[in-house]
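Hi D.,

Good news: the full-assembly prediction came through. Inputs first.
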Amino acid sequence: MSAVRLSPTSYVILGMIALRGPSTPYDLKRAVGHSVGYFWNFPHAQLYSEPDRLADLGLLALSVEDSGRRRKTYSLTDLGRAALRAWLAAPTDEHFQMRDIAELKLFFNEVGDPDNVPSLAAEQIKQHEERIAVYEGMVERFGDDPASRPRMITLELGLEMEHAALRFWTALAEGDLDRLRRARMGTTAGTTSATTAE
Amino acid sequence: MSAVRLSPTSYVILGMIALRGPSTPYDLKRAVGHSVGYFWNFPHAQLYSEPDRLADLGLLALSVEDSGRRRKTYSLTDLGRAALRAWLAAPTDEHFQMRDIAELKLFFNEVGDPDNVPSLAAEQIKQHEERIAVYEGMVERFGDDPASRPRMITLELGLEMEHAALRFWTALAEGDLDRLRRARMGTTAGTTSATTAE
DNA sequence: GGTCAACCATCCGTCTCGGACGGTACTGTC
DNA sequence: GACAGTACCGTCCGAGACGGATGGTTGACC
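Then the structure:
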């Protein structure tokens, strides 16, 4: 039974149920939407099929409502919790994956009109500012709540990434990419070289 | 025929052929591997099927070798170039997508052993340092070549992102996440608040 | 001319994707 | 308490992505 390979999406489901307690697919959908969905997106349809698979594997327990809508509620079994904890403890030698259409367009724009770049940059600046506002909003609303404190940590990573992207597109729009490079030298030189030197 | 929706992967192929000239799937595979593959990954098998589809649409022209291996070489048609340029000029309101297993594990580690975090951080620091080295290597080798200069621009975005992630995981390992926040205030405060204020 | 490693191409079963569609419950109106 | 309207919720499905396994081709070296 543990020979079955679970996908990251499986663990998102296990993890979400572990954090929230027993949940319906729709509960998960909403919870994912404003948390983990920001760094692991997947179609909501999977939240309706995947839990059944996990239930078949004994990682989740299923209870169905008697009433009309016959909602399915899934809860974590001991086996499920163990599987989740094993995954959390396992090494992760993977680098994150990016899928960035804007970057793609920038890369290929040699072939296109140079005028495309400023508008591309403007759009991206807007995107990243909006996202930063969303993240900052979360920090403001939940930052003080001790219960959700641990979940705020990944927000910091998100914010770092957003600011990095924002800096890039802003510098590009202002035609001053060299500034970026100089700034990086100043900021992380110590950290990087110290650890790289090993 | 232009009613057909092309995927980003289709445009990667069109774009690569536009930059390199006529190419075989294997050419593309290698070219993608050390460039665009870093921010748009996809299985190599698609480089053998997708060009045929694009050829059917009239966006690529196909010529087959007579010799034994019967290599297929694809080149861009006028229609293909027009499609590519149209895509490059079209607005992009999309935000990049991330898929970060490490971040996932960090998010759910409330459920796991706190000891997982330091090793997770150590692994990620290694990943990002390696990737930075790869990128810096590219800059050193091709940075001076005027022909590849335009393609170096996206490297700067990659480096910004890598350093952002590296800063985060380093701060996490050192238990000093607050430093990040303070540093962000100092660096981008002007840019962000000015534009967010609207 | 034989062997080997590197190079190159294809196939295929499984899973993902995301959008369209359709059913269910609640709310307000008369 | 019938009805319409509006969220809320779940499922389906075709197209495409995925990635690993497999097998053929080529040139180099013995």
